[in-house]
Amino acid sequence: MKKILQDLSFEELENLIFSLGEKKFRAKQLYDGLTRGKKISGINIPSELRSKLLQEYEDEPVKIIKTLTSADGTEKYLFELSDGNVIEGVLMKYNYGNTQCVSTQVGCRMGCKFCASTLGGLVRNLNSGEILCQVLTVNALHAKAAGKRAVTNIVLMGSGEPLDNYANVVAFLKNVSAEGGINISPRNVSLSTCGLVPKIYGLADEGLPVNLTISLHQTTDEGRARTMPIAKKYSIAEILKACGYYFEKTGRRYIFEYSLIADENCDAEHAEGLVKLLKGKPCHVNLIRLNEVKERDLNTVTEKQAYRFLGLLEKGGLSATLRRSMGNDIGGACGQLRANHLKNN
Ligand code: SAH
Q1: For a tag site, which of 16, 179, 243, 294 has the least CB within 10 Å?
Q2: Average pLDDT over every residue of 177-196
Q3: Which of 22, 88, 161, 264 is the catalytic position?
Q4: Which DSSP category does 3 fall into?
């Protein structure tokens, strides 16, 4: 596999251009073009420099090979990487802007029982440039029509566990928020983790105030371990302590994802358990009805059950919302588009 130019910060790109004996402004020209989602071959630089770069660097590290559009405007993309692996992403349209969901790994090794991304295990980590290119490519698709930056928010909630690919994800967070680049503020980025506790401490110390989201999905360690193997390694108490540290260092309140699974985690006792765990903490709970994955034997709840659970949390004094499901008509849960693609190819 060739290297990826989008892995580089502007300073690193400048150094590369210097080392090739070129003038400084070529770095800016390249960086601006790449930020606009262009390929190296589509940027107006001297042909000698272009061929030198193309010998070593991928022209198009992330290519959209399929787009599905939902009735509600949500778009789902299947991206192909230069080694032939595929990942997926989503763009959700809200009145405050557009949120893109990006992948951080091909597959995942966390093994959560409700999740389609982990079905085939981890294939490989994505480079920071491959994570960035998902955003640059989708932004370029829409930016022209919008006349401005089209992707305003990012959630690291596609396939993969972001904190299991720590260095590349942190490099991505720095590059995506760089001022001369696409410049999406860390405050508009949410990183979701199943709870790799030491890495949460690490992230708190990076000075990147991203929104931290924890996939909780249960109220006890034993219950959590039934669907999330990582619960055997780190307890809920350890996660809460790490979240407290995150809040102290960044001033950002943290969020818990709680996917409602029938007969698993949404009785009155679970609501009570959540209130006990979280009351008084600077956090918010996001409920989402399980997206059923056909390879998995878990069922979702009715809308009525979901609202009842939400009511119990609110009554208990928690800040909570039931997330609206988007793009239901175009391919369901995380990882399903890729899983179908792999089956049919
Ligand atoms: N690995 C990270 C981010 C990926 S998934 C994490 O664990 O947080 C983003 C969110 O979707 C997580 O909260 C995950 O638990 C949840 N999720 C995965 N599969 C789901 C499904 N089938 N239905 C509902 N939520 C799901």
Answers
A1: 179
A2: 97
A3: 88
A4: B
Ligand 1: list residues with CB < 6 Å. 112, 114-115, 157, 161, 192-194, 215, 257, 259, 288, 290-291, 293, 333-334
Minimum mean pLDDT range among 35-44, 247-256, 295-304: 295-304
Cβ-contact 82, 130 below 8 angstroms: no
Q: Which two tokens stand for residue 136?
A: 């640059």
Strands, E, within 102-240: which ranges? 105-107, 122-125, 153-156, 189-193, 211-215
Question: How far is the centre of ligand 1, averaged over its atoms, from the C-alpha of 145 (Å)?
Answer: 31
Q: Measure the CA angle with vertex 89, ends 84 and 94; round to 5°.
A: 160
94, amino acid identity: Y
The amino acid occupying position 307 is Y
* Average per-residue pLDDT for the chain: 94
- At residue 341 the predicted structure's pLDDT band, cuts being 50, 70 and 90, is confident
Told to judge if 194 belongs to the known catalytic residues of this protein, a careful annotator would answer no
Cα–Cα distance, 185 to 167 (Å, whole number):
19
108 is catalytic: no
pLDDT per position as a tens digit, 235-248: 999 999 999 999 99
